[in-house]
Amino acid sequence: MGITLSTQEVAEVIGTSGTAVLTTLRKDGRPASLPVWYVAFDGALHFRSPTRTFRVRHLRRDPRVSVLLHDGEHWSRLRGILIHGDAEFLEDPALRRRVADAFDAEFADLRVPAAQLPRAVTAHYAEEAIFRVSIPARPTTWDNTKIRLNP
């Protein structure tokens, strides 16, 4: 029984943006998983994060990550993609701007206006790291909709 996603289905689940679970590694090797927004283009998932977060510290020390994307809520409708890779911090100003613009286009309606945030929160988000994780040609995938259920 093949329940993997085709290349086209992988692209459909990834879309151009969404929410994922990003797992980094703590100094002692334990995983740390957090939900994050991403934008997808050029064969990679792109992320933004305040520079002073544990997530960024973890990645600067050890770039290995796992990224989980999924859709569907009922078990029989779950589809997912698990990507293992290395985070690459982006320094090129034009690429950083492209990522920032994509985030602004995709998530502007979901953010709290900066004027409503406490000054400490605004300061926390003022400096950001931007990084990407390449999408492998054959990520681990599953699609429970392809399972034939007994009547």
- What's the β-strand tally? 7
Task: Provide the gyration radius in Å.
Answer: 17 Å
Strand content: 35-45%
Helical amount: 25-40%
Number of helices: 4
| Spans of at least 5 consecutive residues with low confidence | none
Under CATH, the topology is which?
Pnp Oxidase, Chain A
Tell me the CATH superfamily.
Electron Transport, Fmn-binding Protein, Chain A
Largest sheet: number of strands, sense, barrel closure: 6 strands, antiparallel, barrel
Molecular shape: globular
Q: In CATH, what is the class? A: Mainly Beta
Number of domains: 1
Average pLDDT, rounded to a whole number, is: 92
N-to-C span: 18 Å
Structure description:
Strands 1-2-3-6-5-4 form a six-stranded antiparallel β-barrel, surrounded by four helices. Helix content is 26%, strand content 38%. The mean pLDDT is 92. It has 151 residues and is an alpha+beta fold. It has one domain: Pnp Oxidase, Chain A. The chain is globular. The protein is built from four helices and seven strands; from the N terminus they run αβββαββααββ. The longest helix is centred in the middle third of the chain and has 15 residues, at 93-107.
